[in-house]
Amino acid sequence: MREFDYGFRRILVDRPQPGVVLFTLNRPDRMNATDDVLHRELAELPVKLDRDEAARVAVITGAGKAFSAGGDYQGIVDEADDYARKLAMMRETLGIVSGMIDCRKPIVSAINGPAAGAGLTVALLADISIINEDTVLCDGHTRIGLVAGDHAALIWPLLCGMAKAKYYLLTCRKISGREAERIGLVSDVQPAAQVLPTALTLAGELAQQSDVALELSKRSLNHWLRQAMPIFESSLGYELLTSFSPDVAARIEKLLAKSA
User: Fold this and answer.
1) How many Cα atoms sit within 13 Å of 239 on the Cβ side?
2) Is 115 in contact with 42 (CB distance < 8 Å)?
3) Tell me: the pLDDT tens digits for 137-181?
4) All domains of the chain, ordered by start, with CATH?
5) How far is Cα 5 from Cα 44, in angstroms, rounded to an integer?
């Protein structure tokens, strides 16, 4: 069988064991922040995974010290008035979320380091998530004047309850790996050195199970998310609306100035 070619530029593809595909988000110099290319490839990944006949389970992780730091702040400022690009990004975000939900094959996220934005979307929409106990998660949308529309309204209340979802999404406070596991936001927490090995071991176990049983179990469970898709789509639309606010660029410029 000819090996499936994913054709990615920002995502490394490896096959560490039979039936398992390891995807590594690969912009380590930018903490794997999502530029236009990586954002598009994240939308393509679940669809291509389903087409890969040799793949039974996927593991997604990040190169270097981060899983993915989310969107590039400077890119948000540069595209402040670019309606066509923002519409394309909205459609790609819809593709990332619906793709993760509809993909027939199990996906395990190995959250080796900080995750935010689109990276956090992939990390938390994975079927099973393993996090580094010493890292942090953060949805920082409201801090820069945007609605938390990537995925949060869809899945955070289901994972950790409405009270915790509102607390973290409205305040943009960081969540440690240990706390994320305690409140149910992720599946398991491990020491840093054990995150990827644990994810790969689990993926290997899943690859030995009935693919149809896993596919249809995942499909049944994800109906909880499908019935909430109108909530997600409204939040995504609200995010697009707020992205045109001059307040967003001003808030980002202040954050960039502080980090300079």
Assistant:
1) 27
2) no
3) 999 999 999 999 889 999 999 999 999 999 999 999 999 999 999
4) 11-259 (3.90.226.10)
5) 13
> Minimal CA–CA distance to 114: which of 192, 23, 170, 14?
192
Question: Rounded distance, CA 199 to CA 9, Å?
Answer: 23
CB burial readout 83-115, b (16+ within 10 A) else e: eeebeebbebbebbbbbbbebebbbbbbbbbbb
How far, in Å, CA of 165 to CA of 157, rounded? 6
Mean pLDDT value across the chain:
94
Q: Cβ distance 47 to 96 under 8 Å?
A: no
pLDDT at residue 260 greater than cutoff 70: no
Residue 91 tokens, joined: 């459609």
User: What does the block give as tokens for 189?
Assistant: 């927490």
Pull the structure tokens for residue 177: 């790996």
